Amino acid sequence: MESKSKIELKKRHWLKQSAITLLLITHHLPSAQAQTTTPSAASVAPAGKAAPTAPAYNATANASQEAVDANGWKLVRTIKLARPGAASLDRRGNFYVADEQDNIHQYGPDGQALNTYSPPLPGHTAQIEAWNSAKILVFYDDRQEILLLDRFMASITNVRLIDFVEGSIRVATLAPDDRLWMFNESDLTLRQFDPSLRRITLNTPLDLIIGRSKPDFRFLRQYQNNLYLVDRTSGIFVFDNLGNYRKKLPFTGLNYIGFRGDELYYLAGNQLHFFQLYTFNERNLGLPAAVTQAQQVLLGEQYAYIVTATGVLVYQVA
Fold this sequence. Notes:
The protein is mostly beta strands. It has one domain: 6 Propeller (Neuraminidase). It has 3 helices and 24 strands. A 4-stranded antiparallel sheet has the order 1-24-23-22. The longest helix has 31 residues.
């Protein structure tokens, strides 16, 4: 049998080892707890550190996106933009709009932001024409200047109209052949300008057509070999692609018109009004019930863009 002194010595040695073991466990415990925040395999956060918290999803916006209006409108995106101005669509369904600083924003068909053009000089963006797709026209009425951008929103060239035209150009647009149409309100002439030749190629006097009325021209657009000049006072003047006057459509009080297929459309009384260009049939479509202050509506093949004072609502259309 072991002596009492030896037993006491072993007991003290065991207690000492136990204390050391307990101390080591306590020292490493915080590190073991930190590993519980190890990120998932898809995360880029290092092990032992909490992965970044994903932005909270707006449940209200999600509910709105899933809702379908009684007229078939389905909200898919809201673009916040203070005091949006001139807007246009291209053939691919991309949407272009100027903001209050006259920056021009390009969005994909479903409202995804793509590119932004910021002008080097201040100016008022009176009109954007993007239907050409390869070139986007921007008309600054205060500077009397036309800017052409490519589809990536890079500047191609600019035309100082005062170098070629005497008077004041009120509205302008881009033709499919890359020539420019413009209306000179000083002498009431419709003119075509060739940027490659840098000269006026066509002139159409409108004084006899307009008569004694006081026109208020707001918009100009070429579509399917016709040119449409919107006069808010008396209606829409229609010309062929050589600038010859054809007729006038009796739709007054308009600032803008759009085209979709073989129909002309415009906004009036919180409804979209459609006019068939060849059969002359008309139909109406009510805007979404939630929209009460629409300033402009542009229709693509799959999406509609409703411009308000605070931004743009992107809807899927039936």
